[in-house]
Amino acid sequence: MIKILRIGKAAYGTASEKQGQHATRARKNATNPACLRHFLPLHSPSLPTRTEIPTMLKKALLAALFAAPALNVWAETHLIDVRSPEEYAEAHADGAINIPVEDVAAKISAVTADKDADIYVYCRSGRRAEAARETLASLGYKKVTNLGTLADAQAHVAKAQTDKAEADSKAVQ
């Protein structure tokens, strides 16, 4: 890493390494970018900064922003895996968030405060998902569905993605 020795007139020859600064040699040929004429600090406010996003990047970002809701089947619904974090790490359905069954009552408000939101829960066998569904129903959530097992949830997600893709293709035509 080259540290700043000084700003202003070019230094000719090798600068001494004082106070941990690396030696840098400045040369006379100002037209050659490899030849340094001035030492500028990296943190200098006078260095040019590029705040404008290049046009191609703007287009890519806008395309990603507009495509994101179409890619997320669960944009208006919530898929919750009520298994342990270890089980979730091994495998989970696309778009699912992990809230262990014992934490559902405490953490559901971080997911959605809308009591009319569509919420789907699943676990390994369906028992913990049913307990989570009952807990959410007792908290006033009206549209809670127990999908059962992980395999059932993955099949449900695949069907939802297929249905969404078909609906989107019909909308384009």
Key words describing this protein structure:
single chain, 173 residues, alpha/beta, Oxidized Rhodanese, domain 1, 2 domains, four-stranded parallel sheet, two-stranded antiparallel ribbon, 6 strands, globular, disordered N terminus
How does this structure look, described?
By secondary structure, this protein is α/β, with parallel strands linked by helices. It has 2 domains: 1-45, no CATH class; 74-172, Rhodanese-like domain (Oxidized Rhodanese, domain 1, 3-Layer(aba) Sandwich), CATH 3.40.250. It has helices at residues 55-71, 85-90, 104-111, 127-138, 150-172; strands at residues 13-14, 25-26, 77-81, 97-98, 118-123, 143-149. The strands form 2 sheets. Strands 4-3-5-6 form a 4-stranded parallel β-sheet, sandwiched between helices. Strand 3 (77-81), helix 2 (85-90) and strand 4 form a beta-alpha-beta unit. The radius of gyration is 29 Å and the shape is globular. The two termini are 57 Å apart. Mean pLDDT is 75; it is low at 1-5 and 8-24.
